[in-house]
Amino acid sequence: MAVDLRFILTGAKRVLDSRPMYAQLVVTDDCNLTCSYCDEYTPGAAAVPLEELKRRVDALDSLGVLVYDLLGGETMLHPQIAELVAHLKAKRGGSNLATIITNGFLLTENNIRALNAAGLDFMQVSVDSLNPTDWSDKSLKSILPRLRVLAREAKFKVEIQTVLNDSTLAVYGEFRETLKELPFAFGFSVMHGKGGRVAIRGERFLDILSKYGVFEGVNFYGEHLKEMLRGDFSRPWKCLGGFKFLYVNSRGAVQWCSQQKAGMRPLESLTPRALRRDDRHKPCEAGCALGCVRMVSHTLGEPLRTLGASLKLAGAGLTSARR
Question: Of 30, 271, 277, 302, which has the highest C-beta tally within 10 A?
């Protein structure tokens, strides 16, 4: 685990400086599934060449990025994903964090071991439902055998991430019961529509969020989330997309997030000074349900309010590093 004292001190600097903290890097737009709600894939798209991805990691590291999500499409379709993780973890003496986001269908004993050797820190497995539905193939019953292999082989931390909506709400208790023997963390992403705007409403969602939280690191905006689920988008906040949070698409352009293409710029053109132009409020903030952007924006934009959550995450990382 790469949350060491150097990581914590450098992360603290990101509150005040003009450098980014977090980047999502698309390694391929291709996906092995065709979930009806998803607009973040292009079937049959080529994987971004490894050498180009390495150059993008080099550029992000030079800007100051400490935390990386590798994603798609489906990340595990990239044939050299472990080599990219190894390249990333060679930066800063390994004092950074690398996460792979995957649907889990392509996990094997061999590629899990390759990711162990590369130094992967986290894997987030996106599972939308207990059983296959007409809107998503990402069901727990479909990948449970692969999750058992993951539990046996992985040396990195694993989180099962579920989209919270009407379908998943009804069976979430059974979902958690099915996985109770596996050593995984759990979290929610709240279903969003076009532009990232929250797509669910109603008091019925509040009980499950109160019981389980959202996911570690963003629970401090729980009251804001409850208001959005009631249809109230009035509470102000500032999105740091394009400034502290960078989304690098498959073409190497940086945009605010996966859902907002405004302000798109070539990665190689960015400097800390240039990033400052997106240190501002954005028209898409009201109703935004993108937890990844929220986590970075609230943590770095409201450091005193979120200090407890930051210390908890840092403490968990240091504890893991000692194991």
Answer: 30
217 confidence band (pLDDT: 50, 70, 90): very low
SS3 content of the chain, % helix, strand, coil (to 5): 40, 15, 40
For the chain, how many structural domains are there in total?
1
Q: List the domain range (segments joined by +) for residue 85.
A: 5-322
How far apart, in whole angstroms, are the C-alpha atoms of residue 250 and residue 110? 26
Q: What angle do CA 122, 308, 63 make, to 5 degrees?
A: 55
Q: Over the stretch 58-101, which tens digit does the pLDDT of each residue have?
A: 999 999 999 999 999 999 999 999 999 999 999 999 999 999 99
Please tell me the distance from the alpha carbon of residue 42 to that of residue 106, in angstroms, as a whole number: 18
Q: Which span out of 132-141, 185-194, 226-235, 249-258 was modeled with the highest average pLDDT? A: 249-258
pTM value?
A: 0.91
Question: At 248, which CATH number?
Answer: 3.20.20.70
Q: Rounded to the nearest 10 degrees, how much is the dihedral formed by the CA atoms of 103, 106, 107, 112? A: -110
Tokens coding 232: 């109230």
- Nearest by Cα to 311 from 299, 302, 301: 299
> Which phi and psi (to 5°) does residue 135 adopt?
-110, -10
**CA 183 to CA 153: how far, in whole Å?**
12
Phi, psi of 157 (to 5 degrees): -80, 140
